[in-house]
Design goal:
- By secondary structure, the chain is mainly alpha-helical.
- The protein has 2 domains: about 120 residues; about 45 residues, no CATH class.
- The protein has 6 helices and no strands.
- The longest helix has about 90 residues.
Length: about 170
């Protein structure tokens, strides 16, 4: 909107200058009798010159706007390329971190499995009553894992030494 207002303002100023120039000429040559057709021709020529000046300046502004728009698009394309490169780098780094986390998770799972196996050997070596007292204080999922890891005969003795409701819940 500001651009349209500026163009209209330039056109009006140019027209008024041309008209003022014609009026000044008429004032200076007031003693000569100018024909009305000559005055009309001079006024038309001034208006035509004013419009041409306005069109050429508008055309120049359009060219400048076009150049500015092209520069802006190039800048945006460069910025987009930089963002894409950064995203690709971040994606590669995240992929490497995910693989590292998976390896660590496998190591932790392996360590827990070894620990459970060692714990199962200890439970297997102790009496059923003592093992039942210990296992009743563990979460049911861990107790099940330990009972599955010990010998079946020992697991049966341990379940027999537990409270019947707790043993039933473990077998469910």
């Amino acid at each position: 909107m500001k651009q349209v207002t500026a163009i209209i303002g330039l056109f009006v100023v140019t027209f008024l200058l041309a008209l003022g120039g014609n009026m000044a000429l008429l004032w200076m040559h007031r003693d000569t009798a100018a024909a009305p057709a000559a005055l009309a021709a001079a006024s038309t020529a001034a208006a035509r010159d004013s419009a041409a000046l306005s069109d050429s300046s508008a055309s120049g502004r359009d060219t400048l706007r076009h150049i500015a728009a092209v520069d802006t698009v190039r800048l945006m394309a460069d910025t987009l390329s930089q963002i894409r490169a950064q995203l690709a780098s971040d994606l590669a780094r995240m992929s490497a971190l995910e693989k590292a986390m998976a390896r660590k998770g496998e190591q932790v799972d392996s360590a827990k499995a070894k620990q459970r196996g060692d714990f199962a050997k200890m439970i297997d070596a102790m009496g059923a009553d003592e093992a039942a007292k210990i296992l009743q204080n563990l979460p049911d999922t861990e107790t099940r894992q330990v009972l599955l890891a010990v010998k079946k005969r020992q697991a049966g003795k341990i379940l027999g030494a537990m409270e019947p409701r707790h043993a039933a819940r473990l077998m469910d």
